[in-house]
């Protein structure tokens, strides 16, 4: 952590932006990601420190303003006037930095969700940046291939620079069946974008539940928690419509890398909402860093659900039923055991 602070101070005092500034941010994101998911508490604490340093550096260096300006420079009309190799390299560095920023917010949501760590940032709603480019561009093996792909895209600008994060987030808060039916064609979102968006929903749910929970005012709490359920169930319906649109062309046996495998976190969000609705809200909110073990157990079982290809409606109905049946249990946190029982009942191969 001292090395990160020292490098950050030295670069800030130099007065000239270089690629080393971008590299430090990306390296810090990778470091905190590895540390936060480590089994050692000391390493997890190091990851928290790295995350705090990361947002201090990004704020002091005005990273979001820089990324905004840089993104404008990567639009088609600007790229056409530049040497193709130089333009490709410049665009790739901008895209890499945007993806690092997304990963930083995702990790911040994970720390709040799993470790009850207060966010270091002001919240994603206070920052504006674009989400990811078309995957074909990111996978291009040469400058010529990269240029050919974006020039023939339906929307070259959107393919190159992605959807603005605030625009994407606002769509999740809109209502109405007519709007939901038009969502998939309105935005050009990719699996990694939706991975980011589901983590922002997870964070917002827990933040709002913490603020809404007032043991001394049960009636007000009940009203606030009911409103939370309505708002976020609707947001999840929109998210699922976007997810289906973004993944409909993928083969059935496609194995998504971690940052594109958002579906387990969609179901985790559903489970958390049910835990808040049927379970001990105070227990879930005040578990502290022990919550990581509950979240990990839920995710393991959710992934088994998904791999088993059980009908989704049946899967969700049983999840809700399990939540309600064990709401009055005195267990440490009974949903974990309930899901384990259900999985073993459904498919005996899960015991192997």
UniProtKB/TrEMBL annotation:
<dbReference type="GO" id="GO:0000978">
    <property type="term" value="F:RNA polymerase II cis-regulatory region sequence-specific DNA binding"/>
</dbReference>
<keyword id="KW-0862">Zinc</keyword>
<keyword id="KW-0863">Zinc-finger</keyword>
<dbReference type="GO" id="GO:0008270">
    <property type="term" value="F:zinc ion binding"/>
</dbReference>
<dbReference type="InterPro" id="IPR051059">
    <property type="entry name" value="VerF-like"/>
</dbReference>
<dbReference type="GO" id="GO:0005634">
    <property type="term" value="C:nucleus"/>
</dbReference>
<dbReference type="GO" id="GO:0000981">
    <property type="term" value="F:DNA-binding transcription factor activity, RNA polymerase II-specific"/>
</dbReference>
<keyword id="KW-0479">Metal-binding</keyword>
<keyword id="KW-0677">Repeat</keyword>
<dbReference type="GO" id="GO:0000785">
    <property type="term" value="C:chromatin"/>
</dbReference>
<protein>
    <recommendedName>
        <fullName>Transcription factor domain-containing protein</fullName>
    </recommendedName>
</protein>
<keyword id="KW-0539">Nucleus</keyword>
């Amino acid at each position: 952590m001292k090395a990160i602070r020292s490098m950050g101070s030295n670069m800030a005092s130099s007065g000239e932006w270089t690629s080393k500034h971008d590299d430090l941010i990306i390296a810090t994101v990778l470091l905190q990601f590895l540390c936060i998911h480590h089994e050692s508490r000391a390493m997890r604490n190091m990851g928290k420190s790295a995350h705090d340093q990361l947002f201090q550096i990004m704020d002091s260096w005005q990273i979001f303003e820089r990324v905004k300006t840089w993104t404008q420079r990567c639009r088609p009309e600007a790229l056409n006037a530049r040497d193709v190799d130089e333009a490709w390299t410049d665009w790739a560095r901008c895209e890499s930095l945007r993806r690092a920023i997304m990963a930083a917010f995702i990790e911040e949501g994970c720390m709040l969700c799993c470790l009850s760590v207060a966010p270091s940032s002001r919240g994603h709603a206070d920052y504006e940046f674009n989400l990811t480019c078309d995957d074909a561009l990111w996978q291009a093996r040469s400058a010529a291939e990269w240029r050919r792909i974006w020039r023939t895209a339906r929307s070259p600008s959107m393919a190159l620079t992605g959807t603005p994060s605030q625009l994407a987030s606002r769509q999740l808060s809109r209502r109405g069946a007519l709007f939901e039916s038009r969502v998939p064609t309105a935005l050009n979102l990719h699996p990694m974008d939706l991975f980011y968006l589901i983590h922002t929903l997870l964070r917002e749910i827990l933040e709002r539940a913490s603020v809404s929970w007032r043991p001394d005012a049960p009636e007000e709490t009940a009203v606030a928690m009911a409103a939370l359920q309505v708002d976020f169930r609707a947001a999840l319906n929109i998210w699922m419509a976007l997810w289906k649109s973004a993944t409909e062309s993928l083969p059935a046996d496609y194995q998504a890398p971690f940052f594109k495998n958002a579906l387990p976190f969609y179901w985790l969000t559903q489970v958390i909402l049910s835990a808040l609705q049927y379970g001990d809200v105070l227990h879930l909110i005040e578990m502290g860093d022990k919550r990581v073990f509950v979240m990990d157990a839920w995710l393991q079982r959710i992934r088994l659900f998904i791999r088993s290809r059980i009908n989704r409606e049946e899967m969700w109905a049983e999840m809700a039923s399990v939540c309600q049946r064990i709401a009055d249990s005195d267990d440490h946190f009974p949903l974990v055991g309930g899901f384990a029982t259900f999985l073993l009942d459904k498919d005996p191969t899960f015991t192997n």
